[in-house]
Amino acid sequence: MNKYFLREEKNKIFLCCGKSGCPSAEVDSDGMVVIKDDYGNSIKMKKGEAELLPKAIKKLNEKK
Predict the structure, then answer these.
(1) Residue 61: what are its φ and ψ, rounded to 5°?
(2) Contact partners, residue 36, CB within 8 Å, separation at least 6
(3) What is the full per-residue pLDDT of the chain (64 aa) written as tens digits?
(4) Strand boundaries in 1-64, DSSP class E
(5) pTM confidence score
(6) Rounded distance, CA 39 to CA 37, Å?
């Protein structure tokens, strides 16, 4: 069981662990998903691509 939880603030969803600097996800004015990490980096992707992330993580975990 992980210690992470989701926190909503206006139009952003934060992926929190209870400390500062939580990564966030939001949809920008062009309909792109923007994910910002806790190191100041960000990526943009189509919603359909972002929806594949849980499956990608599952596959990565299976390879361990």
Answers:
(1) -65, -35
(2) 23, 24, 25, 42
(3) 678 999 999 999 999 988 888 999 999 999 999 999 989 999 999 999 999 999 999 999 998 7
(4) 5-9, 12-16, 24-27, 33-36, 42-45
(5) 0.84
(6) 5
